[in-house]
Write a structure and sequence with these properties.
about 260 residues; Alpha-Beta Plaits; elongated
């Protein structure tokens, strides 16, 4: 059995080469498409945020976790207070506390829907818990935040045998909407439109295997170009036709004369 060596031309491999300079020219040539997609995405995002999205407001209450029976200078007490904040986070968002909030405020909510509106945050190296409630109604967001802090403080004192956390901050109603953020969302949409247009032009450039120049023949087919003929355009064909008609008319005149 004889071994045959097969030579594969580099142009026949699966490696795709991209001429960045040519790709840049293509992007600049199709700048209108890029601008159009950016405007479409940006306008759609702005219209949605401005006319369809429901604005949401946030209100925050704060609890201070500290035991009156301990010393401020005790490192162990400070560590205990910091660890208690983790327990309190779980208690505040638990069903017993939130069910009482729903009952006291007579909310048209379930435990799951109310839980989604509440976010608990604990700044680093602190024993302060912030209860942030997000709702379409700023007044209701404040009521839920304040009532949750109050009920949670009482629940912790009764069920966990701890000093009740102090409420150091109540909610507010004068804050701006936290969602939607129209300008930021519109800018992101413009960037997405730019990326989509760039990706489309790049894919179109990479997958285009049309032979346009003698260099393409050598690169894509591995053949040498011996000669080339100028491409006859429609303008040149019309010009040649007009010259033939003039020549025919002139010859006819000469025969008549």
């Amino acid at each position: 059995m004889s071994n045959k060596e097969t030579n594969i031309h580099p142009s026949q491999s699966n490696v795709i080469t991209i001429d960045l300079l040519e790709l840049t020219r293509q992007l600049l040539f199709q700048w209108k498409l890029i601008v159009l997609l950016m405007l479409i995405c940006g306008s759609a995002s702005y219209a949605y945020c401005r006319f369809y999205a429901t604005p949401l407001y946030a209100s925050t209450s704060g609890l201070y976790v500290f035991s009156k029976s301990t010393s401020v200078t005790s490192l162990a007490d400070l560590q205990i207070g910091s660890s208690l904040t983790k327990d309190y986070e779980t208690v505040i968002t638990g069903r017993p506390v939130l069910d009482r909030v729903i009952m006291r405020l007579k909310l048209d909510e379930t435990y799951d829907t109310l839980r989604e509106k509440i976010a608990i945050s604990n700044p680093s190296d602190s024993r302060i818990l912030y209860i942030t409630v997000t709702d379409p109604d700023p007044e209701q967001a404040k009521e839920i935040a304040d009532r949750t802090a109050s009920i949670a403080s009482t629940f912790i004192s009764q069920k966990m045998d701890q000093d009740p956390p102090s409420i150091i901050q109540t909610g507010y109603t004068d804050g701006p909407p936290v969602s939607p953020r129209t300008m930021r969302t519109t800018v992101v949409a413009l960037m997405i439109g730019f990326l989509l247009a760039t990706a489309y032009i790049t894919i179109q450039y990479v997958t285009n295997d049309t032979v346009m120049t003698p260099e393409d023949v050598q690169e894509k087919l591995g053949l040498n170009v011996l000669a080339s003929l100028p491409l006859e355009t429609s303008e040149s064909r019309r010009g040649r036709s007009r010259r033939r008609k003039r020549s025919f008319r002139n010859s006819s005149k000469r025969k008549v004369s």
